Amino acid sequence: MADLAGLRVLVVEDEGPVALLIEDLLEDLGFELAGSVAGLEQAFQILGSSPFDFAVLDVNLGGVKSFDFARALIRKGTPFIFSTGYGNSSLPADLCTQPVLTKPFSSEQLRRAVEQALT
Q: Where do the H-state alpha helices sit in 1-119?
């Protein structure tokens, strides 16, 4: 696996305990936390103002799908993984090839999803 030390990550997750878990696991992998937000408005603000190298993106943020933000990440060339309890069957056709981390997940599953997204 590539050295992740110093790579900045954005976590977009609306469930506080899940966000904290993801943040801890990512920091254990060597990422630096660039930000952690619970909604798309905040995520788009960070996208336009703060640099980050990678993102973990919950599919369903309080009933709002994060697909437009995912597309913005693709346009910007920023790798990401989806985090969802629904699996990849809930993704639209243009996003179905993106790595998906199915909740609940282990640190090893997170590591493999990160590796997939960064290759």
A: 16-29, 40-49, 67-76, 107-118
